[in-house]
């Protein structure tokens, strides 16, 4: 068999296996790269070269940047804005806002960057509003494809067609000139998705959807009876407690108040200094009138973080949080005494309450003087401390954490610690991409590196943040594009098509090029497809005596119509897992969108850029 025949056979088998959907997609992708080498179509360096491709590096780095936005609460904040703007009931408003946001972001940083940044936001929205993620994620990706035609920076294909126009002597395209077709593409895409998306998309979620922790703090404070009567008071310079040890705080004249903890003002962790200083906090529990009288008498100010007495906001905020732990059988803590207000051995967590069989232990048995509570297997404790302390200390095998503090913080604490740095990193990356100062892979690596160096994420967390299935899948499938070019299969297909439609007029030429570009774009990258089709389209236009500008713009639109398969673009693959999509789910919504792109490319483009 010839190399072209081998390549065609491999493509056919790959498509069948993807549609069959019984083998893991990573296995199919790796088998594809191996088959291209085994048949002699590609060398070993070419068959495995996709893993070193800059696009793959860029995608991997974007997962780290996206996780940095997620872990600092930026995505939770963006999700709250979208929910607030769309309302919890309006599917239409939610889709319009989501698709508009991703389209505008795509115009600045490309499809891959925009989808990677907003993917966790949309997943959080799906969880919070109890909607199926499959109903939201493909609309996110497909509207990003349309948004890639709003500006020159929206896609590498835009740069290719602009350069090709200049090289042909007909001039390139302006930065926002693409919006002349981008706006109709986006409007039509949004209309089709809003009108038909609900019926054409599956009603399912990904296999590993996160839990909804948006109301986690409220649930905990209600369960442990801390909804009201919890106060955080800040030490003023005139307070008599300044310069005194924490043990000197006496509440004998205020029997309705109980001291929970003394916290350092800078860190909100339990006080470790020998004496109290201005700005430190007292955490009290008890009667509201007694708390107000105590604050006035001792020159204390109620914390600005929350309304006085609101346990949810006082205990759970940007600085500190709550965690519920269970004492498992054979735990080393069984038989030990604890009491509310007790500081753990690590010195940075506070025991707020203890429950046994779902009921709070009687207050008379829960004090230091009464000997505290003797822990038993199955008891639950509510702990409070800084987010950092919760993350680090709850890895102890003597306790089982009910919900990971890291996951809770991501959803429930918008714009938490490090959020400003994460936003600044994103803005810097966008500027690098929009101005072209650095290649996308370099911009992504720089941004990911700063995320780690700034302490937003550790190296281990950054490893876990990367969706390795997507990275391996993209890297293993890229050699298929190389094989199409190297064997001449792609060029042979293109030349035959042009010879068939070239004499039928310019409209027929646009239609033929669209069909070719769109079909190839479902199997290989749209950038590789454009590189193959652009020179053929320019040559055909010159032969027919027409301007290549509408041909080039039509090709750019066709290259963006990568809707029918998950392997058409990296972003289509990105949402396959979180959306729970099967191979056949893409074409159902993708086909009507492709028809709209065909109308724009073949009939609207010549009205804007004449032949």
Write up what this structure looks like:
The chain is an alpha+beta fold and 611 residues long. It has 25 helices and 11 strands. A hairpin with a 2-residue loop joins strand 7 (349-356) and strand 8. Helix 4 crosses helix 6 (91-128), helix 4 packs antiparallel against helix 18 (468-486) and helix 22 (548-560) packs antiparallel against helix 25 (585-608). It is elongated and about 100 Å long. The model has no long low-confidence stretch (mean pLDDT 83). Residues 218-300, 310-399 form the RCK C-terminal domain. Keywords: Membrane, Repeat, Transmembrane, Transmembrane helix, Transport. InterPro entries: Cit_transptr-like_dom (IPR004680), DASS-Related_Transporters (IPR051679), RCK_C (IPR006037), RCK_C_sf (IPR036721). Its main location: membrane.
